[in-house]
Design brief:
The chain is mainly alpha-helical and 162 residues long. The chain contains 5 helices and no strands. Helix 1 crosses helix 3 and helix 4 crosses helix 5.
Length: 162
């Protein structure tokens, strides 16, 4: 039993590290896109805005947050759920292999954002999102999914886990 706990701890650690690396890659993607699209003022998509903080505030039943508290909550949500999502990639990689797992993972994240943001974050439904917003969201989530898979494969090479 102790070996199983260690193994699950290792999987959790690997998933969190992969999610952290993927969140970092996504942030670098936003940085690069801002350098290319200099005409965009403000967020590039809803993940790049205060919408995740609004969703978290609604879930936590915190309606009157100061701008500073909202910013801090946004950072915690962005890095927290970004890192935690890496854990969910492990069973997909184990079951389907890297390319199908990345595609399934990407599709799940896009579906999650396209449902969660309008329902809890007050955004329009995805079919009313501007084209540049949906393209950025799709690309940034692909960066996230591919980075997660690559990091998991690097962390677990030789173990047969990912």
């Amino acid at each position: 039993m102790a070996g199983m706990e260690w193994r699950y701890g290792t999987l959790l650690r690997d998933g969190l590290l992969a999610g952290l690396a993927a969140t970092t890659a996504m942030n670098l993607g936003y940085w690069a896109e801002r350098r290319v699209r200099r005409n965009v003022d403000g967020p590039l998509d809803y993940d790049d805005s205060n919408v995740p903080a609004l969703v978290a505030a609604k879930v936590l039943r915190q309606s009157d947050l100061s701008d500073d508290a909202s910013f801090r909550l946004g950072l915690a949500v962005h890095w927290g759920y970004g890192s935690l999502f890496g854990v969910t990639a492990i069973p997909l990689n184990r079951r389907f292999g890297p390319v199908p797992a990345t595609a399934i993972y990407w599709g799940g994240m896009m579906a999650f954002a396209c449902v969660m943001f309008p329902v809890l974050g007050g955004t329009p439904p995805p079919w009313r999102w501007r084209n540049d917003v949906i393209v950025t969201s799709a690309f940034q989530h692909l960066v996230y999914a591919a980075t997660t898979t690559a990091v998991l494969r690097a962390l677990t090479s030789g173990e047969g886990v990912a």
